[in-house]
Amino acid sequence: MRFQFALTLQAIWTGMCHAAMQHYPAAWGHYDVCKSQVYSDEGLTWDYMACQPEAADMTQFLKVTLDPPNITCGDPPETYCALENPYMCNNECDASTEELSHPPELMFDTEGRNPTTFWQSTTWKKYPKPLLVNITLSWNKTIELTDDIVITFESGRPEQMVLEKSLDYGRTWQPYQFYATDCLDAFTMEPKTVQDLSQHTLLDIICTEDYSRGYVWKNDKTVRFEIKDRFALFAGPRLHNMASLYGQLDTTKNLRDFFTITDLRIRLLRPATGATMVDESSLSRYFYAISDIKVQGRCKCNLHANSCVFDKEKLSCECEHNTTGPDCGRCKRNYQGRAWSAGSYLPIPKGTANICEYKQALAPSSIHKHVSSLTVAPQVALSTAPSVHAANSKRARVCDNELLRCQNGGECVNNRCSCPPSYTGLLCEKPRCESELGGCKGPDSGQASLKPPSLCSLLTLLLLDLLVVVVVFFLLGWLSPLIVKI
Ligand SMILES: [Ca+2]
């Protein structure tokens, strides 16, 4: 059912592409199916396609860490004032009372309830020492962002903040975007907006004042990292030309990596103050409060899986195409028939699966190459052991009546090659002289060219001689009238 449904989805998507629908696709992806069965001349076979999991709300799968760890309000309990009214100080934060506590998980619960639930920091009691908080979101898995990151603040957006990303599980960090009421003052960067970016500067890290300016009222509470506006630089303003974006993602690793993360870090550097000067007599007005963080994305499975499971607190791809690993980043054992490669989005709409192939599935003509370079498949290598007998011939099978692999006149007997005297090796591929003292150049090497001619070769030579004599006689008979004339 799911399979049919996915196919239908794909058909709908393809239709949408052709009709150039002027809507944002729900999840900018449509590579839902990894393989399908098809009838061909060889019977029922698999047709493989590039595939990826659906985009999802990734906040369900993250681990959140706060630094400093005791930065959440309520221990000890404290009162705080409303930013817009310093005399309204009737709010209380108490970690020991559920209704009055503001733990970090309230940044990720389902919103829409009233009143809003939110995480809140301690107040800025230690002013002028900066009120610094790092909120780290870790997935322990590479994920690809598919939609804007949206952070909703409940008490004014911070005056200075940096959004950072890691691609190596938090070992190293790179900035994604700087946010400030005054970019020059805070980060010595010219203020820019995402609209200033072009295809050539898409990877530039900018400082924006769009989400920090002035005091923020209820309708203006969000800070964004604009993923879709960046996609739109390649896919067009309504993301209707996804082929163009996929093409770029396929060929530009930097671009692909830009949207790929294992961790995000929100560095809060200065809370909203609502004024040019901080009122030192009322520091309980200044703190951070976040009610919601949205991170939409999908597991990165290198286009080798269409589902990703969350088991034992960890996400991992359910790999297809004979791949394995948390990101389907390598071929399964015995499936290294060719080097691993990520799938490709192109050609639209099915992409290219680049499956890992079973080693034994190589064409017989290429077997010889493998044997002679000693990179024989495991099954073949096993049979070199002298103790291999008919009992385990299933694993030790070298040849059979269909696979006439024995070379140089060798015959398949009991699934093993019986070689002529001058050849040896699993497939009779080696002249016996190679393993003898002095090698093939020695006087006793037994190499074909140095052997006395066999009866067969003598007969062949005799026949050839006879043929030459007959031809000469025939020519002479045909030419004789001419010779007489001359
Ligand atoms: Ca909430």
TrEMBL record:
PROSITE patterns: EGF_1, EGF_3, LAMININ_NTER. Residues 1-19 form the signal peptide. It holds the Pfam family Laminin_N. One of its GO terms (biological process) is axonogenesis. Disulfide bonds join C419-C428. Coiled coil: none annotated. Keywords: Disulfide bond, EGF-like domain, Laminin EGF-like domain, Membrane, Signal, Transmembrane, Transmembrane helix. The chain crosses the membrane at residues 458-479. SUPFAM superfamilies: EGF/Laminin (SSF57196). InterPro entries: EGF (IPR000742), EGF_extracell (IPR013111), Laminin/Netrin_ECM (IPR050440), Laminin_N (IPR008211), LE_dom (IPR002049). Residues 47-298 form the Laminin N-terminal domain. It comes from the Eukaryota. Residues 395-429 form the EGF-like domain. This is Netrin G1. It comes from Fundulus heteroclitus.
